[in-house]
Structures are given as C-alpha cells and as structure tokens.
Amino acid sequence: MSENKFVQVAINLPLNDVFDYSVPQALQPLVKIGKRVWISFGNRTIVGFIVGISASTAITRIKEIKSVIDKEPILSSEILELTRWIADYYLCSWGEAIDAAIAMPFKKGKTSIKPRLASQLMPGIDYEKKVVKNILTSYQTKALLQLNQSIVKREFNVFLLHGITASGKTEVYFGAIEQTLKQGRDVLVFIPEIALTPQTVQWFTEKFGKEKIALVHSRLSAGEKFIQWQRIKSGQAKIVIGPRSAIFSPLKNLGLIVVDEEHENTYKQEDTPRYHLINTAIKRAQIAQATVILGSATPSLESNYAAKKGDFELIELPERIKGSELPQVQIVDMSNQSTRFKRLPILSKVLEDNISRCLKNKEQIIIFLNRRGFSTFVNCNKCGYVLQCPKCNLSLVYHSDKKCLVCHHCSYMQQAVQICPKCSGSSINYLGTGTQKVESELSRIFPLARIARMDSDSMRKKTAHFEALDDFKNKKIDILVGTQMLAKGLDFPNVTLVGVISADISLNLPDFRASERTFSLLTQVAGRAGRGKIAGKVIIQTYTPDHYAIECAINHDYKVFYEKELLFRKQLNLPPFSHLISIVLRSKEEKAVISAAENLGQKLMLKIKGLEISMIGPMPMPIYKLKGYFRCGLILNTADILNTNKLIKELLKDNKLPSKIKLAIDVDPRMVI
Ligand SMILES: [Zn+2]
Ligand SMILES: [Zn+2]
Fold it and tell me: From the CA of 246, how far away is ligand 2's center (Å)?
C-alpha cells in the first residue's frame, strides 16, 4: 500500500485548518511535501500547498487533488517550519504565511515567468569587485572576534551591534560575512528601503563581487525577481541582500543573518501575515543554527532590553572611525521665532544664516522634513471648513507640482479649490508645511543655489533617486531637501550642515512609540553631517526643546534616553514589558461594525477573566474612517503572548463574524491607528 495516498494541504485563505485530500494513484509518485497542487475548494479550483503526506485519514468524505503543479518542491522544510511558526505567533493561517513566503512568480499557480533579461543587479548599478583593505579599529576587531566565534561554532546566537553613526558597522558585517562564506555557509542581509541606498549595494558588490550576490528589492520586475530566486535556489548566490520578504529566500545552508538599522519600522509587514522581521529572522536562525547580527545606532527599546536581560549579546562601537567628530547640534526654539514675523517662518534666522555660510564655502546641505506635499492643511477662512478625503475623513494635502489635493492614506486626488465647497467663500487657507513648500521657500531665499527634492513624490521614476544621489555626490546639487528617505545610510563627506525643519511632527503622533521614533530619526538624520574632514553642524527647529527625546538626541545620549523611555514604558506596562495585540474590525456599514466590535469585546472579556490580560475597547480607532471603511477595535495587553494567541484563535473559531465585517489582527503592532 502506498504511503502517498493522502495529502494535508494548506491554502491561502484565513482558515486555520489544514485540509486532507486523497491522491489518485497516477499522481501518488509525484506528491512531495513543499510542492503545490490544484484542488477544488467549495466550488472553485485553487492552489494548495502540501504540508503533510499520509497513508490514512480520519476524514470520510474526501476529495481528490486535481494535479501536482511543481516538478520539485518550492518550499524547504526550513521554510515550512518558519511559516508554521509565523501562523501561530502572528495569528494567520499557515496557507497565508506560506503564500507570503513564496516568490512572486509562483503566486496563482504559475511555475515560471519569462524574464526580461537583467544584466545588472540594480538599474544604474554595475560595480566590479575591488580589493579594499580597511584597517579595523580596536573596537571593530574586538566585535569581529566575538562574532566569528559564534559563526565558526555554527551556533544559534543573537548579537546586538550598537554602533554610533559612522562607527563602521558595515566593516564588521563584512568581516562576519567573510567568515561565514569561509565556513561554506550562506548569508542573508537586510537593509531597509534597499532601492534608496545604492551606496550600500555598491560597497557590498565591490567587496564580494556581483556573482555571489542576489539583490531582491521592490523595484525589480517579477521576471527579475525570478532570476534572483533561481540564483539563490541553485546555490550560485551566497549572499542575499533584500527587504524583509527576503527572509524566505531558499538558501540551503544559512549561517548568518545581518539586520542593518534594526530599529526601522519598515521591518514590520502591514498586511497579513503581519510579521516582524527581527522575530522571524531570529526564528529562522534558530532553525538553521545560524548567527544573527542586529545593527543600529539607536537600537529599539525591545532589542536593547533583550540585550540587558541577556537574551541577546551586546557589542558596542562607541567611536566614529577616521577620527571624524560627532556633529555639534543646535536647537532653535521656534516659539521665540514667531513674534518676529506676522507669519511663522519656515526657516529660522539661525538656519538661514548657516545655509548661506555653507553655500559660500561650497559645502553641501541636507534639509529634512518628514512630511510630503506643499500645504498639509487646507481650510476655508470664512466658515472653517477643512478639505478632507471623502473616503478617510483625513485632511487633504496640497501638492504644488500637480496643483491638486491628495489624500496620503488612500490615493484619492482632486483639483485644488479656490472656492469653499461649503459656504462658497473665496478665501481658502493653505496651511502647514511639506517638503515642496520648503523647496520653494529655499529657492526664494537662495535663488542661486542648486536645490533638489527627494521624497516619494519626486522619486516615482525607477532611477530618479540614483540620479539625485549621483548629482549630490558629484556636487551638482547644493541643497538636498527630503523626507526620512534621506536619513538612511547616506554617506557624503562634503555635507557639513543638516537642518531639521520640525522635530515635532513625529513627536505629536498619537502613539506610545512617538518619543522613540523621534529620538532615533533625529539621531540618524544628524549622523549624516560631518562624515568627512570638516566638522558637521546640525540645526533642529522645534516647539518642544525640553522634551527628553530631543534633548538626548542633541547630546547623542542613547543611554539616558533609553533609561527614561524604559521607565515610562514600565510605569504604563507597555512593550518591552508586555505585548500588545490589536484587533481591528472594519465595515462599510457603521452600525454593523459597532455592534460586531461590542459583541466581540464582551466575549473576549469573558475569556480573559481572571487572567493577567488587560483589554482596551471596544472603541473607535484613531483613524475612524479609512478608505471607505468604518473602524472599531480592541487592544489586548499581555505578558503571555502564546497563550493569549490561543485564546483569540479559539474565540474566533467559535464565533464567526458576519460577512460584511472584515478583521485585521496585529500582534506586536508598531503603531495603533
Ligand atoms: Zn467656507
Ligand atoms: Zn483617503
């Protein structure tokens, strides 16, 4: 009797179960764990993933699989174990986790894709291997010694590499990668927003040669992604550089995972499965017995706390390399500025003077504002009516390049108005400052300066950012204005001044991580200044100069910030002392979502009675109407995440939501909105 008579199949639907199917005799030699099959489900034919094979089944009425899609399994046992863990921890179905793990060309049952020939790793980037010999500092040498021990022993260990900006973390990564390759093992490297950091890619290709590297990023076409997937699967590429989804790369012999800028929010997936890269990377390393390096100048509170508790090993790089000094940081209190003018100035006198001094000296300047568009708030002077997105009830932002009003949450767009839609008054205020307004203000004050803007509006074209950064590198641009795109890993020795237009934007967000985010953003931005021979200066404009996030950023004092913030989190029992789980219901019908949330809240209350789990809500979410949906939710706070997850799973299995209600569960959310 064949052992292959039945298969257990996971499917990409929010259903927790794995389904049994029988295998027709002719197909029995073909079924293997990790392959895909066509199955009928309900009245549809869909793709299923084989996650188990058996000789018998307890199911009496059983359907047959229709066909086997793959010649070879596309999922290894390592990836199957990882996705199973994701499903349990992040509360999605196994099939949903697997679907997120498979490469784009394999979605919807395809087996290959006709690739457009990709001759380059990245458009605009084609570097040759170079022999670069850097002499390591004593801190770098010590760090590497510690890492190499773990790599050589092929042990599972997590290291937190806390190095201040320009302390040479990349050199330490390189050393650890070399050691791993020497062991015959493979490497995964994560860089946030890889398409925006061509310099990093250049360093890697020059160091290891492009033949060994697979680069996976959002700007590749499906065909280009498939080429990279094949290079990884065949073992040709030994180093994979990518965003969080690269954690599912089919490397056979993983020995090292490097996560650069580990504090970044982009490492959290915002759609199902809502996994966080750090947790997932640690899990994969555990399965593969690999070493993990988490690098940052401003480690997340969670990571630093884990290091303090001894779960991670801490390695510090407290000095800048090449003897460059940390930049001098000056605060400008904008509340003093407002009295000098009728209208609030965008640039303070201090910032304006410093820009003009740098321009005279032919030095370069970065101006940072984390808000796109021209005017961020448009209202009627007469009746106060605020122009809002009809689908989200959030303020529309005026974009001067297209002369239109845009919603930054959905992509709703309408023409700019001169007449109030409510009272027909003709005096419309365009208030609030975005990067476009800063750009236009700079060119008004400094008409001779060469100014460029870098944000997601100006960077739509595939190669626009390479061109902008190249021009900046070649000193064809004097002032670069931009959003947080500019904060990441850029290294331009001629930049001597960094100006922050408003430090308060991220501080005022209704989120418990607001201080942490502000501190880390300011530290990163400030770190772009003074990386060469000339000392750098940073000017930060703010209305809250006394806030500890800002004070600590000025003094480059991570430790003091960490202690203060940790105390605040402890008092409120927030992460890292607990885990949050947000459960958000949404519906186009307002009444339906309110009653469903109340219903779910009551049932959940009964479940958690007597346990150390607290619940906030049911309540309307801070963004109550988004993309046409009304949103209500609950937040659970618990120390025992796995048991709480079990309770939620049980509850949702026993209580089916009405079909007009959509559900989103976020375990360890980065932001609750
Ligand atoms: Zn009006
Ligand atoms: Zn909208």
Answer: 30
Looking at the CA of 391, which ligand is closest? Answer: 2
Amino acid, single-letter form, for residue 245: S
In degrees to the nearest 10, what's the CA dihedral of 75, 76, 79, 80?
Answer: 80
Whether the CB-CB separation of 256 and 181 falls below 8 Å is answered with: no
- Give domain 579-667's CATH architecture: 2-Layer Sandwich (3.30)
Query: For residue 417, which ligand has an atom nearest its CA?
Result: 1
Question: How close is the Cα of 378 to the center of ligand 1, in Å?
Answer: 11
Question: How far does residue 384's CA lie from ligand 1's centre (Å)?
Answer: 6
Q: Residue 184: how many CB atoms within 10 A of its CB?
A: 9
CA angle 181, 182, 185 (to 5 degrees): 45
Q: Which strands make up the sheet holding 44-54, listed edge to edge?
A: 19-22, 6-11, 44-54, 36-41, 67-68
Residue 401 C-alpha to ligand 1 middle, in angstroms? 25
Average pLDDT of each block of 10 consecutive residues along the chain (673 residues)?
85 88 94 96 93 91 93 94 96 95 76 59 63 85 97 97 90 96 97 76 89 85 84 94 93 96 92 95 98 96 96 94 80 77 79 96 94 91 90 89 90 91 91 93 96 83 75 93 78 88 83 91 83 83 92 92 96 94 96 95 92 92 91 94 93 89 94 79
Query: Where along the chain do its domains lie?
Result: 6-109, 138-322, 324-371+435-568, 374-432, 579-667
Distance 423 CA to ligand 1 centre (A): 4
Fold of 324-371+435-568: Rossmann fold (3.40.50)
Rounded distance from Cα 393 to ligand 2 centre (Å) = 7
Select from 3.40.1440.60, 3.40.50.720, 3.20.20.70, 3.40.50.1980 the CATH code of 6-109: 3.40.1440.60
